[in-house]
């Protein structure tokens, strides 16, 4: 059952109601969040874009949770380049919901059955605690959607061609799942498949992150898809997500070129100077909203990424379709969270 069903107007109505209720809930159960909203003068929103946002960086500076300590089931961490860490607090209900909704999102393109899975990474990465929080968690999270897992890289991080060939000989005649970070897929699967004549035509690729390393090689998302198609891999889906809104991912549609919002989430693009909502076609700062964060006030977050909405109700799936354009320069992004830290 797809989670990409609601036209934008219907989605706005549902989200405004649910997110407004979440705002009231978090205000009542999270004292720092209540102080932030009081300082901002927020009372009521008449649209999703009017809901009060928190800068995502704030989770590195404040303990933000709407559950008592004895109900904390899991604490997720996200390490930044400066060693700052976001802490996201989940109770059992929130953890179960995010797992279920992530599964529903991914199954839109994978189908309901778990497929044989080729992981474009090394198992040794799971033992490296420094890289584990981001990369390891991503690999482990996605691995639940596959079976009979095979790692494409050996323990030293080198391509294991025999393992890849063995996987394709066993599973290549029927649909199979491939997961990896974007630059890893390019370097360690696409180039290997091209140079060794491997057939990936029954593969379904889910990938994310690492675009900067490819941009340095002049590999754009469209070039990435074109080259993968040359080795038979035509079903390719990029996604965008973050630990601060765990369980919510924005998924690339079958036609490529755009990310889509599941029914329980949406994006708003804002002018970085005035904070007003920008219309389709105008790039700005990306805000992400989701009904999944019930145990902490992460339901309306201003990211440090630039994005643009390309169109509304005019693509593979209903709702907004958008692209992520890269990070906002560091100083500007820090400014908005400093404002909120003072208010808190």
Oligomer classification: single chain
SSE topology string: HHEHEEHEHEHEHEHHEEEEEEEH
Structural class: alpha/beta
- What overall form do the CA principal axes indicate? globular
Main pleated sheet? 12 strands, mixed
Helix content: 25-40%
Q: How many beta-strand runs?
A: 14
Strand share of the residues? 25-35%
Separation of the first and last Cα atoms: 42 Å
Q: Quick gist of this model?
A:
The chain has 10 helices and 14 strands.
Characterization of this structure:
- With 344 residues, the protein is of the alpha/beta class.
- It contains 10 helices and 14 strands.
- It has helices at residues 8-29, 31-40, 58-61, 92-110, 129-143, 161-171, 182-196, 211-215, 221-230, 330-343; strands at 54-55, 74-79, 85-90, 115-122, 146-153, 176-181, 203-208, 235-240, 250-252, 259-260, 265-270, 284-290, 300-312, 320-327.
- Strands 1, 4, 5, 6, 7, 8, 9, 10, 11, 12, 13 and 14 form a 12-stranded mixed beta sheet that branches. A two-stranded antiparallel sheet has the order 2-3.
- Helix 1 (8-29) crosses helix 2 (31-40).
- The protein is globular, with a radius of gyration of 20 Å.
- The N and C termini lie far apart (42 Å).
- 41% of the residues are buried.
């Amino acid at each position: 059952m797809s989670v990409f069903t609601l036209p934008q107007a219907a989605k706005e109505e549902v989200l405004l109601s649910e997110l407004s209720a979440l705002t009231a809930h978090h205000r009542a159960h999270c004292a720092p969040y209540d102080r932030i909203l009081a300082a901002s003068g927020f009372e009521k929103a008449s649209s999703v874009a009017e809901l009060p946002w928190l800068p995502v960086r704030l989770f590195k500076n404040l303990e933000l949770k709407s559950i008592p300590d004895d109900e904390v089931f899991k604490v997720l961490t996200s390490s930044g380049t400066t060693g700052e860490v976001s802490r996201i607090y989940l109770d059992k209900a929130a953890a179960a919901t995010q797992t279920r909704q992530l599964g529903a999102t991914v199954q839109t393109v994978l189908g309901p059955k778990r497929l044989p899975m080729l992981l474009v990474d090394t198992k040794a990465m799971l033992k490296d605690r420094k890289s584990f929080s981001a990369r390891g968690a991503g690999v482990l999270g996605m691995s639940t959607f596959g079976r009979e897992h095979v790692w494409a890289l050996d323990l030293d991080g080198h391509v294991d061609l025999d393992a890849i060939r063995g996987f394709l000989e066993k599973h290549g005649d029927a649909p199979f799942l491939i997961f990896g970070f974007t630059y890893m897929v390019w370097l360690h699967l696409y180039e290997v498949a091209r140079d060794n004549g491997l057939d990936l035509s029954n593969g379904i690729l889910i990938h994310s992150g690492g675009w900067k390393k490819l941009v340095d090689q002049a590999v754009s998302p469209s070039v990435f898809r074109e080259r993968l198609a040359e080795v038979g891999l035509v079903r390719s889906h990029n996604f965008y997500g973050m630990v601060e809104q765990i369980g919510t991912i924005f998924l690339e549609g079958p036609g490529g070129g755009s990310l889509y919002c599941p029914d329980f989430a949406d994006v708003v693009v804002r002018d970085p100077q005035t904070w007003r909502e920008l219309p389709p076609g105008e790039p700005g700062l990306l805000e992400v909203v989701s009904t999944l964060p019930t145990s902490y006030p992460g339901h309306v977050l201003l990211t440090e990424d630039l994005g643009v909405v390309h169109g509304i109700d005019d693509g593979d799936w209903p709702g907004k379709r958008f692209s992520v354009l890269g990070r906002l320069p560091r100083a500007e992004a820090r400014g908005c969270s400093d404002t909120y830290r003072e208010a808190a």
